[in-house]
Amino acid sequence: MTTAPRTVHTFCRYCLASCGVEVTVEDNRAVKISADKQNPHSWHDFCAKGRTAARLVEHPRRILTPMRRVGDSYVEATWDEAITDIAARMNAVIDADCPDAVGVYYGNPAGFSSSNIIFMNGWLDAVDTRSRYFVGSIDQNAMHVVADAMYGSILMAPVSDIDNCDYFLLVGTNPAVSAWNWLETVPGGWRRALARQAQGATIVVVDPVRTESADKADVHLAVRPAQDWALLLAMVKVILDEGREHAPDCTDLATGVEDLRALVADADLDDLARRCDVDRAEIEKVARDFAAARGAMVVTRTGVSMHLTGTIAEWLGHVLNVITGRMDRPGGRRFEPGYVDAIRLSGMAGTSAHRNRLSGRTMVAGGHALSELPDEITTPGIGQIRAMVINCGNPVVSGPDGARLDRALAQLDLLVAIDFVQRESHRHAHWLLPAVHWLERDDLLAFTSNMHDEPYLHYGAKAVEPPPGARQEWRIFVDLAIAMGKPLFRATGFNSFITATRRAARLTRRPGLAFTPRWVDRLVLATGRKVDGRRIRWRDVMAHPHGWVLGPREFGHFRSALRTPDKRVHVAPPAFIARARELLAEPAPAAPADYPFQLANRRHRHSMNSWLNELPGLHPAGKGSEVVIHPEDASRLGIDDGDSVRVHSPVGSVELTAAVSDQPRPGVVIIDHGWGSRVFDPRGHEPAESFGVNRNLLVDAGPVDPLSQTPALNSAYVAVERAG
Ligand SMILES: Nc1nc2c(c(=O)[nH]1)N[C@H]1C(S)=C(S)[C@@H](COP(=O)(O)OP(=O)(O)OC[C@H]3O[C@@H](n4cnc5c(=O)[nH]c(N)nc54)[C@H](O)[C@@H]3O)O[C@H]1N2
Ligand SMILES: Nc1nc2c(c(=O)[nH]1)N[C@H]1C(S)=C(S)[C@@H](COP(=O)(O)OP(=O)(O)OC[C@H]3O[C@@H](n4cnc5c(=O)[nH]c(N)nc54)[C@H](O)[C@@H]3O)O[C@H]1N2
Ligand code: SF4
Ligand SMILES: [Mo]
Question: For the 4Fe-4S Mo/W bis-MGD-type domain, which residue ranges apply (predicted)?
C-alpha cells in the first residue's frame, strides 16, 4: 500500500551552512529535497549535496545490519551479537593491559549529530581511556588552540558580521565553494559578501591558488603556502609601527600589546615579504586599508591551519581583528550567545591534560593527533592500542600518510567501524555497524547555536525512518557501556537508570518511556537562555518547523563571554610569541632540491571531504584524478595537458593526469583531497569501487605544528615527473 506524499521541513547536516530543506516523502522514501524558502535563516547555500542526500540513504552498498568479519568476508549478525562480542573483546583487551588499549577516532560528521559526541564521550569516560583521536588535528585544532589562549575557551568562535563589513580579508578560504563555514554558520555568506562588494566593500583573498573566490576578489595575494604567518605578522607590524591600531581596544580590551610591539620590532618587513612572497608595498597597502576601513574582518580558515605554521597564522589573523577594533563591532566578528551556553556546558565535560605515551604531547580539544595514531597502535608497551572504534571518519584518506595508518589498523585485535558504507579506513574492520543518516534522525544542535550569525534555533526533524537494522551512535555507545559493565559518564547508577527506563517501556508497552537523547535536549533547553523573558519550551521548538530566528543580532556579548580570568583578550600568549620568534629565526623557506613543488588542495561543491564523491551521477569520470600544474612549470618539465604524471614525496607516490592551468602560483601543484577512497561491498560481494587518487598518501605524518599537532596537509613538498 502506498501512502500519500507528505512534506517534512528540516535542515541539511552535511556542513555548517545548515541549509533549511523541504523533503517530499513517499512510502518512507525522500523522493525530492529542495531548499526550504520559508526558512528565515538558511537556505541560500543549498547545493547538490543536500539535493542528493537520499542517494546516500539508498546507497546500493549501504550496510543495513551489523556485519561481522569471517575470514575475508562479512556475515550479517544481530545487534545483540555485535554488542556482546565487541564488549567482551574490549574488556579482554583492557584486562590484559589497561583502559588506554581501547581507542576511538571520530571524524567531522560526528559534530552534526546532537547526541553522538556526548554519548561517545560518556562511553570513553566509562571505559576510562585516554586514547581519543579527533579530526581536529587535520582540520580546526589551530582555531581551538588560539581561542583557548586568547579568549579562554576552545569554543569561543567569533562569527562574521558580513552585512556591515566594508573590508574582507579572507585568508585560506574559498567560500564560493565551501560556503562560509568553519566553526560558524553564516548562511549565504559569500553572496552577502559579494552584495557588500557591489555596494563598495573591498574583498581581499589570500590564497596560493586563483580560486573561484579569488576570481571575484578586488585583490588577490597569491601567498607562498604555509607563509601566511609572515604576511599577517607584516600587517600587524605596519599597523603597530604606524600607530594605526584601535587605541582603546589595545589598552582596555586586550592585554599583551606591548609584547606584540616587541615581537614586530624584531621583525623586518622585507624579510617577511620575501618569506610569504608577496610584494612589500602590497602588504603595506592592504594593512593600511584594513586598519582604515569602517567595518572590517579577517577570516582565517583551513588554508591557514593545515600547515606546520598554522597556529601562528591563525593567531595573527585574530590579532589583526583585535588590535584594529573589529571584535564585537559592526562589520567585524561578534560573539553570538546562542540559546544555550555551550562554553559552560562543554567545560562541565572536563578536559584532560593527558600526554601521549610516545610523543609526550597533550590532547588538544579533548583529543590526540591523528598523526600519532599509527605508532600508538604498533608500538608495544602498556597502553598500546589494541581495539579501536572509527566513528564517522575516513582517516586513511582524509589524514596524512594513509598507507601507514592502513598498515597499523590491520594489526588491531579489534576494529569497529560505524558508518553507512565500508570505506577505505574500514577495510580491516572486524565489525561494521550501520549508522543512521540525518534524514533519518532528529537533532537539536544546541551546542553549535552560538556559531550562527543570528540567534537561531532549528530542530532537525527526521524525514524518513531509518532501516530497521541501523542504529544511532548514542545507542551503540550506551549499549556498549552497559554490556561492558562500565558506568556511562563515570556516573554510578546511570546505566541502571537507562536499563530501568527500558524495562518500564517494555512492561508498559510504551516505547516512549525508554531513555533517548530527547531527554537531554529538553534538559538543555530547560537550563538554557531565556528568550523574551522566558525559557524556550519544547512546544515552541515544535511550532517552528522552518526554523526560528530568536531575535535580532546583538553586539555587546563578547566581553562577558570571555573565559580568561581577567576578562580580557590575550593577544600575546607566551607560547605563540616564542613560536613566532622561532619561525623568524628559521631561514626563509625553500623547497628541497628533490621535491621542488608544494602540494595544494581543492574542494568541490559536490563532494564532502572523502565522501559524497561516490554518489551516482554527481561527478564526471576522472574527477579527483588530476594534478593541476602552472604552465611555466609544465613546460619546464615537458608536461602537456592530459599527460600521465607521477607525483611523489618521501612517503608516497601517485599517478594522475596533468591539467595545465595558471590557477596555482608557479611552484604549487593542486590535487583535490578526499579522493581515492574505495567503497567496498560487504553484502553484495562486488569488487570495490574506487574514485580518484588519494593525494594525502604523499603527506608525511611525522612533522606537525607543535601547537596544534596538525601536519603539512596542504603544503607538503613533492616532485612531479612524466610517467612511464
Ligand atoms: N589534504 C587535505 N586533507 C584534508 C583536508 C584538506 O583540506 N586537505 N580537509 C580536512 C578537513 S577540513 C576535514 S573536516 C577532514 C575530514 O576527515 P574525516 O572526518 O576523518 O573524514 P571524512 O572524509 O569527513 O569522512 C567522514 C565519514 O563519516 C561517514 N559519515 C557521515 N555521516 C555519518 C553519520 O551520521 N554517522 C556515521 N557513523 N558516519 C557518518 C561518511 O560516510 C565518511 O565515511 O579531512 C581533512 N583532510
Ligand atoms: N563543497 C564542500 N563544502 C565544504 C567542504 C567540502 O569538502 N566540500 N568541507 C567543509 C569543511 S569540513 C570545512 S572545514 C570547510 C573548509 O572551508 P575552507 O577553509 O574555505 O576550505 P577550502 O575551500 O578548502 O579553502 C581553503 C583554501 O585555502 C587555500 N590554501 C591552501 N594552502 C594555503 C596557504 O598556505 N595559505 C593560504 N592563504 N591559503 C591556502 C586553498 O587553496 C583553498 O582555496 O568547508 C566545508 N564545506
Ligand atoms: S551540504 Fe549543501 S545543502 Fe547541505 S548544508 Fe552544506 S551547503 Fe547546504
Ligand atoms: Mo573540516
Answer: 5-61
